[in-house]
Amino acid sequence: MFTKAIVRIPGKSMVNGISNANLGKPDYDKALDQHAKYIEALKTCDLDVTVLPADEDYPDSCFVEDTALLTPNVAIITNPGAESRKGEVHKMKELVKGFYDDVEEIKEPGTVEAGDIMMVEDHYYIGLSKRTNLKGALQLLAILKKYEFTGTMVNLNEFLHLKTGLSYLEEANLLVCGKFISNPTFEEFIRIEVPEDEAYAANCVWINGKVLIPSGYSKTSNKIVAAAYEIIEVDMSEFQKLDGGLSCLSLRF
Known about the structure:
This protein is α/β, with parallel strands linked by helices. It has a single domain, classed as L-arginine/glycine Amidinotransferase, Chain A. The chain is built from five helices and 15 strands.
């Protein structure tokens, strides 16, 4: 169960954020409205939400998930692989010290973005991507072991982040799309397959029995409902334009 979340309001500079989506520039006012509704969805899941002010110095800073991994035992401050995002971690480090006694850090030349990390109970799957390199993943595994967690590295060649194509919905249910459908690493799970034309919906968030899903993906939402979950649909159109998904917009712990 989660009790808390951290989010950051998008800044006007978000229109200059990193993107390979080719969906155009985000509409800032619409993004603010969507973000406010995202916060309400988190609160509906019984989370106490810490809302951070916009940081205009970092266009992608609303995607707070990438800056830290908040485990039950330790907060791990990451080192983003995107050069323009590295400075985001400094303010997050100071903030999480208010929630955790133990705070560790990923150091250069290692890079880690927490969008590449999927928690399954006490085990962590770590995607090796353009943003998370081997040296960073090895540092992360060593920190996890120190705090009695385990981990597995997963090579990515299809998605920006591991959780772009995977979402763990608890109770052994795993939302999967693309090559993850047949990846033997995840054969122990009950796999809920996301249709190729709804691939964006593979990034969902389980929170205290409910599943947040981007709105407009009926085939995927129907499958999740059929698996006996209550869903909350959230419009993510403006964040999708920046390659961002539902999990990216919060740290949940």
